[in-house]
Specification:
The complex is a heterodimer of chains A (about 325) and B (about 325).
Chain A lengths: L2 E14 L2 E14 L3 E5 L6 H7 L9 E10 L2 E2 L5 H10 L1 E4 L3 H4 L6 H12 L6 H10 L5 H4 L9 H14 L4 E5 L7 H18 L2 E6 L2 H7 L2 E6 L2 E7 H6 L4 H9 L47 E5 L2 E4 L7
Parallel strand pairs in A: 3-8, 3-9, 6-7, 7-8
Antiparallel strand pairs in A: 1-2, 1-4, 4-5, 9-10, 10-12, 11-12
Chain B lengths: L3 E14 L4 E16 L4 E5 L6 H8 L7 E6 L2 E2 L5 H8 L2 E4 L13 H11 L6 H14 L16 H13 L5 E5 L7 H18 L2 E5 L3 H7 L2 E6 L2 E7 H6 L4 H9 L41 H4 L5 E4 L2 E3 L6
Parallel strand pairs in B: 3-8, 3-9, 6-7, 7-8
Antiparallel strand pairs in B: 1-2, 1-4, 4-5, 9-10, 10-12, 11-12
The chains are: A alpha/beta (about 325), B alpha/beta (about 325).
C-alpha cells in the first residue's frame, strides 16, 4: 500500500512568555492509503495537536515547529505556502471534531454550510442535489427537508452526521476524526462508528481516529499509536496491542478500566496524575507512575524501538517485558 | 429496613412560551419512578442524556422540588419538607457532582469548603476539634493535611473530586448521590476515584446512588442496577443479571453498544435507529417502541407496559420480557 501520510520526528512547542513548552516530542508514524490508525491517549498527551498539525491548523504563534516533517501525499506540509495549505485543507485532509454543536455555524442552514465546502473543492458539484446525496450518504432521514434546518434544530448525533457529510463533500483522501463520538450517547456513538466504517469501506479513505477509549480501537483501527506526555510510547497493529500490550503504560491503561461482565475485582488504578505540559520528568516520562520502573528510568529517556516486527515500544526494558 | 424508599416520584418542568409565559406543556423528566436503597448498598443508575437520571438524583437530595410522590428517608417522608427541617435531615444525605471544577467555590480554601459543612451542622465543639476533623477527612480521601490551606485551582481534576468527596463525608451521611463522579476525569484517574468510593463504603457503610452513563463502571461498583429511558425505569435488578441477561430490549441495545476492549469478543452490536424522542412529547404507549427492534404494533403503541417482576428480583417494563 502506498503511504499517504508520513510524520517524521515531529516536534511542536507552545511559547508562553519566556518558556517553550514542548507538547509534541519526536512523533513519527505513517498512514497508508485506506488504512485506519488510532491515536490513543489521555487529555494533554498531544494527540489532538499532532492531528491538527497535519493541515497546519495550530496557530503559529503561540505554536512553533522546531523540527520534523509531515509528508502528505509526498509534500511537506510544514513548508507549504498559504495557498497550498488552503488547497489541502478539505481537499486532501478533512476534519470531524468532538463537539458538532460548536463546529457548525449556528446562523447558517446546514445545507448552505455543506455547499460552501463543495464550492471550494468541487465547484461544479455545488448544487442542492449533491448536498442531498451527501446527507443521504451519512444516513439523515428526509434530507430534502433537512437541508433547510439550522444546526440547533438537529440532535447531537444528526449534527455529527452533518459534520461528516461536510468533511466528505470534498472527497478527501484522509479523514481526521478527533474524538468524534465522545460527546454522544452510547447508542448514538454506535451509529456514528458504524457509519464511519461503512464510508471508509465504500470510499477507501484513510482515517486517523483520535480517542481516549480503548474499546473503540478494536472495532475501528488497523494500527494504534498510544501517546503519553507528548510522545508515542507504543505503536502496533490494533489487535496485537489489545491482545498483548507491551508498554507498561498501555498495560496499566487497559487494566484500569472496568470491563463489562468481568469479575468484580479491585481496579488496578495508576497512581499519581498525568504530568502537565512543561513538567515532564527528565527520563522516561511514565517513570513516576510506572509499576515496573527501575532506577535507570529516572534519567535515561528511552527511544521508540521495534521490539518485534511492526511493534514499536518506548521503554528501556522493552525486551524484558 | 430500607434506607431510602422512593414511591411514584414525578418531577415535571413546565415549558413556558410567549409574552405572558403561558405554560405550553411539561417535560416529564421523572415520571412515576419507584425504588428502594438498603443501608450500605450501591444502586447504579444508567441511561442516556435527557433520560432524567440527574433530575432523579437531585430530587432525592431535594435540590429540585418533586411534583408528586414521596421520598421516604428512614421511613420519614422528606418530599414536602423545607427550611430548617430539611437542613437538619440533609446531614444524612449528600451529593457528589460531575464537574469537579464547577462544584467547588474558587474563592474558598479547601479547609473552608470542608469546614463549612461542619459549621452548618455544628459538628465540632471548638476550633481544634474542627481542624482535627478536616485533617482526618483529607487523609480519608487520600489528600495531604497541608492541602487545607490551598485553593481549588491548585489541584488536578482527580484531586478536586477527592475534595468534593471529603466535603460530602464531613457530615457523616448515610447516603451519597454520586452524579457522574468520574466521567470528567482522565481514564487513568477514574480507577483511583472508584476505588476510593468503594473503600469508603467498606469502612463507613455509606449507601450510594451511583449515576453514570458508562455501563462498565456502573456494573463494577453497583450491587443492583436501574436503567432509565425517557423519565421511566425500564429495568431494575442485580447488576450481574442485568448486564449478563438483560430483559428489556433497550438495555440489550445499550449493553451491546458499549465498545469493547477485548478484540476476540463475540458480542454483536445492536444499532438502534433514530434518536431519543423529546420528553415534552414522548411516544404513546411504550416510550421505547419507535426505536425498539422487537416492537409489535398495535400493542406497543397502545399499552404502556408496567414495570413487573419478570424473575425474582429482576424487573422490566416490556410486554414481551420473560
Amino acid at each position: 500500500m502506498a503511504t499517504l501520510l508520513e510524520i517524521k520526528n515531529l516536534k511542536l512547542d507552545f511559547i508562553a512568555g519566556e518558556r517553550r513548552l514542548r507538547a509534541v516530542d519526536d512523533v513519527s508514524f505513517t498512514i497508508a492509503a485506506g488504512e485506519t490508525v488510532c491515536l490513543v491517549g489521555e487529555s494533554g498527551c498531544g494527540k489532538s495537536v499532532t492531528a491538527l498539525s497535519i493541515a497546519r491548523l495550530v496557530p503559529t504563534p503561540p505554536a512553533n515547529y522546531p523540527g520534523g516533517e509531515i509528508f502528505l501525499n509526498g509534500r511537506d506540509v510544514l513548508k507549504m505556502s498559504k495557498q497550498e495549505l488552503r488547497d489541502i485543507r478539505g481537499g486532501v485532509v478533512s476534519y470531524v471534531f468532538q463537539d458538532p454543536n460548536a463546529s457548525l455555524n449556528p446562523v447558517f442552514r446546514v445545507g448552505t454550510q455543506i455547499k460552501e465546502s463543495l464550492k471550494l473543492h468541487r465547484p461544479e458539484k455545488a448544487t442542492d442535489a449533491e448536498v442531498i446525496r451527501l446527507l443521504k450518504l451519512v444516513g439523515i432521514p428526509a434530507p430534502e427537508s433537512r437541508i433547510k434546518d439550522y444546526p440547533h434544530q438537529m440532535s447531537g448525533g444528526m449534527q455529527q452526521r452533518v459534520m461528516i457529510a461536510m468533511a466528505l463533500a470534498s472527497e478527501p483522501k484522509l479523514l481526521v476524526a478527533d474524538e468524534p463520538t465522545t460527546a454522544l450517547d452510547v447508542t448514538i456513538q454506535a451509529q456514528i462508528l458504524e457509519l464511519l466504517l461503512d464510508l471508509k469501506k465504500r470510499f477507501g479513505m484513510s482515517v486517523l481516529l483520535i480517542t481516549h477509549n480503548l474499546g473503540i480501537v478494536g472495532d475501528m483501527a488497523d494500527r494504534v499509536a498510544v501517546m503519553y506526555a507528548g510522545q508515542i510510547v507504543e505503536l502496533a497493529p490494533a489487535l496485537d496491542l489489545l491482545r498483548r500490550p507491551l508498554h507498561p503504560y498501555t498495560k496499566a491503561l487497559m487494566n484500569s478500566v472496568p470491563k463489562l461482565g468481568a469479575k468484580h475485582q479491585r481496579l488496578a488504578a495508576i497512581g499519581g496524575n498525568v504530568p502537565s505540559l512543561g513538567n515532564f520528568p527528565p527520563g522516561c516520562r511514565f517513570f513516576p507512575r510506572c509499576p515496573s520502573a527501575q532506577p535507570e528510568c529516572a534519567n535515561t529517556m528511552p527511544q521508540l524501538v521495534e521490539v518485534e516486527p511492526n511493534r514499536w515500544v518506548r521503554c528501556l526494558y522493552a525486551n524484558s517485558l | 429496613m430500607n434506607l431510602l424508599e422512593v414511591k411514584n416520584l414525578r418531577v415535571h418542568f413546565p415549558v413556558k412560551h410567549g409574552l405572558f409565559s403561558r405554560v405550553k406543556g411539561h417535560v416529564k423528566a421523572v415520571d412515576d419512578v419507584s425504588f428502594a436503597i438498603q443501608p450500605g448498598e450501591t444502586l447504579g443508575l444508567v441511561g442516556e442524556s435527557g433520560c432524567g437520571k440527574t433530575t432523579l438524583g437531585r430530587a432525592i437530595v431535594k435540590l429540585v422540588e418533586p411534583t408528586a410522590g414521596s421520598i421516604l428517608f428512614e421511613g420519614e417522608n422528606i418530599a414536602n419538607l423545607d427550611g430548617r427541617e430539611l437542613r437538619r435531615r440533609r446531614r444524612k444525605f449528600q451529593m457528589i457532582f460531575q464537574d469537579p471544577y464547577g462544584s467547588l467555590n474558587p474563592r474558598m480554601t479547601v479547609g473552608q469548603i470542608i469546614g463549612e459543612a461542619i459549621d452548618i451542622h455544628h459538628l465540632a465543639a471548638d476550633e481544634a476539634a474542627r481542624r482535627d476533623r478536616i485533617v482526618d477527612l483529607l487523609k480519608a480521601v487520600g489528600l495531604d493535611p497541608s492541602h487545607a490551606q490551598r485553593y481549588p485551582h491548585e489541584f488536578s481534576g482527580g484531586q478536586r473530586q477527592r475534595i468534593g468527596i471529603a466535603r460530602a463525608l464531613a457530615v457523616e451521611p448515610q447516603l451519597i448521590v454520586c452524579d457522574e463522579p468520574v466521567s470528567a476525569l482522565d481514564v487513568s484517574v477514574q480507577a483511583q476515584i472508584i476505588n476510593l468510593l468503594q473503600d469508603l463504603q467498606a469502612q463507613r457503610g455509606i449507601a450510594y446512588l451511583f449515576i453514570a452513563h458508562d455501563l462498565a463502571v456502573v456494573e463494577h461498583i453497583s450491587r443492583r442496577v436501574m436503567v432509565m429511558y425517557l423519565g421511566k425505569v425500564v429495568e431494575l435488578g442485580e447488576a450481574r443479571e442485568v448486564i449478563s441477561a438483560p430483559k428489556h430490549p433497550y438495555t440489550q441495545a445499550l449493553i451491546s453498544a458499549v465498545p469493547e476492549v477485548d478484540p476476540d469478543s463475540k458480542r454483536k452490536r445492536i444499532v438502534l435507529p433514530g434518536d431519543v424522542p423529546s420528553p415534552i412529547d414522548p411516544p404513546k404507549g411504550c416510550p421505547f417502541h419507535p426505536r425498539c427492534p422487537i416492537a409489535q404494533l398495535p400493542r406497543c403503541q397502545a399499552e404502556v407496559p408496567e414495570l413487573r417482576e419478570v424473575t425474582p428480583g429482576h424487573w422490566a417494563s416490556c410486554h414481551f420480557a420473560k
